[in-house]
Amino acid sequence: MSIAVENVSFSAGSRLVVDGVTLTVPKGKVLGLLGPNGSGKSSLLRLICRLRRAESGVIRLGDDDIASIPRAALSRRVAFVEQQATTDTQLTVRDVVRLGRTPHRGLLSSWTAEDEAAVCQALDRVDMRERTGQLWQTLSGGERQRVHIARALAQAPAELLLDEPTNHLDIQHQLDILSLVSRLGITSIIALHDLNLAAMFCDQLAVLREGRIVAAGPPDAVLTEDLLKEVFRVQAKVEASPHHGRPHIHYLG
């Protein structure tokens, strides 16, 4: 397995936010992390990239316990795209994406052709090459999100974690970004709210409720009408899509 979470727990103050979570993501596959607001999705992603430390349990990347991986090595290996990221520094789009190369370069390293190619390719992948010289602060929310995804891609990670990456994106770019991630061949975990998008683009799904995994497996096994009613409190009909064969949810109210 490329990512393995084994009985991991984490508390914020007196509240247990992640409660004994166990999940695995095979190498090169995409896992969609689902659940209502406050279910622990963002906290779990931060635990996996060691922005927070688990109180118990083990998180492995391949055969390595993340607690034993040096910070510099972890930064080269794992890319994390947060829901919102901002800065007061005057940076161009290219400057932001160049930051993705930082883990691969020493303090005195010169900018290389490999670095430049990684940045250009990442900008092309998110359709932002023509905005290279534009100030990041002048972009729309959706455009900023695409730039941050480009930064992550320029990092050339082995594992990619994305927290609600389609927030603020129009439907075309939602589809483009998730289609891109699904084709990268990078082990990825994507926290999503849109269950139909998760079913379309993720190989496996895991559903969190109050910090616990309540269902995990392929989309057609996880997205059942009973689960939607119990966890998300919605009445819905689930059918195989005639377009892609995966589950499609019709909300009934």
Automatic annotation (TrEMBL):
<keyword id="KW-0067">ATP-binding</keyword>
<protein>
    <submittedName>
        <fullName>ABC transporter ATP-binding protein</fullName>
    </submittedName>
</protein>
<dbReference type="InterPro" id="IPR027417">
    <property type="entry name" value="P-loop_NTPase"/>
</dbReference>
<keyword id="KW-0547">Nucleotide-binding</keyword>
<dbReference type="Pfam" id="PF00005">
    <property type="entry name" value="ABC_tran"/>
</dbReference>
<dbReference type="GO" id="GO:0005524">
    <property type="term" value="F:ATP binding"/>
</dbReference>
<feature type="domain" description="ABC transporter">
    <location>
        <begin position="3"/>
        <end position="235"/>
    </location>
</feature>
<dbReference type="InterPro" id="IPR003439">
    <property type="entry name" value="ABC_transporter-like_ATP-bd"/>
</dbReference>
<dbReference type="InterPro" id="IPR003593">
    <property type="entry name" value="AAA+_ATPase"/>
</dbReference>
